[in-house]
Design a protein that fits this description.
This protein is α+β, with helices and mostly antiparallel strands. The chain contains eight helices and nine strands.
């Protein structure tokens, strides 16, 4: 699609009218849950809480914004679990549950819908074996999804050969469960899901500055490949954004 056709497409879709009276919210259907369910027998890892984050060091917001930049080269040192917990809290932490379908988090979301899930491709974190994990914001825990052989190579392949996710301590992989947003916004949901991913990743950039780490947002990836790596169906849930994290 050339630039003029793309511009016309975006103009038409952004301005389209949506009949919100036909959404599931206005049909009085209960909202989907805040968090993707997990198997009760799954291995879960408790994460350090917010009361321990003060010990990580402080950086003022002016400095964090001023020094924020994309970092694609990382030292081979592991991240501490406390640092990982802080980054997860800063990007998807829950401040207050409002009801079974809504919660206030550390990032904004249209209609308080929060359509993202956070997976971690862990390669070098003290106390965690290599593998794929998912953040449980309600419990402030990680659930171990599965181990994967040659994970460094497979995450690189999933991002079209870009090397730095395979060299990072871990990579944040955000997926979306679109129905969480469609329940309220119908066909307009895709617009605000994309905006939400931007909010989350910017928080990660700033939080990384606070703990001496760097990150780099990645939107160029093999969609079927990364979804297969996470064992997602690619329809009811699919990858939308990635960001490796490591020490500067």
């Amino acid at each position: 699609m050339d630039k003029e056709r793309l511009r016309a497409f975006l103009k038409d879709t952004i301005r389209q009218e949506v009949d919100f009276s036909q959404t599931d919210q206005n049909r009085f259907i209960a909202p989907p849950p805040i968090e993707k369910p997990y198997a009760r027998q799954a291995r879960r890892i408790d994460l350090p809480g917010a009361e321990q984050f003060q010990a990580l060091g402080k950086i003022d917001l002016f400095t964090a914004i001023g020094e924020r930049e994309s970092v694609r080269s990382y030292r081979p040192e592991p991240l501490a679990l406390k640092e990982v917990a802080f980054l997860l809290w800063a990007t998807q932490g829950i401040r207050r549950v409002l009801d079974p379908g809504h919660a206030l988090r550390t990032v904004p979301s249209a209609g308080c819908r929060h359509a993202l899930e956070t997976y971690l491709c862990v390669l070098n974190v003290t106390g965690l074996e290599q593998g794929l994990y998912r953040y449980l914001p309600l419990e402030h825990q990680l659930v171990f999804e599965f181990a994967e052989q040659n994970l460094e190579r497979k995450i690189q392949q999933a991002v079209l050969g870009q090397p730095y996710p395979g060299q990072a301590a871990l990579t944040f992989i955000w997926t979306t469960i679109p129905y969480r947003m469609e329940w309220r916004y119908g066909p307009a949901a895709y617009k605000v899901i994309a905006l939400e991913a931007g909010h989350v990743c910017q928080n990660l950039y700033l939080a990384c500055e606070a703990v001496g780490c760097g990150t780099c947002a990645i939107a160029a990836y093999d969609q079927p490949g990364i979804d297969r790596l996470l064992k997602l169906d690619g329809r009811e849930e699919f990858t939308i954004y990635l960001a490796p994290v490591g020490r500067k």
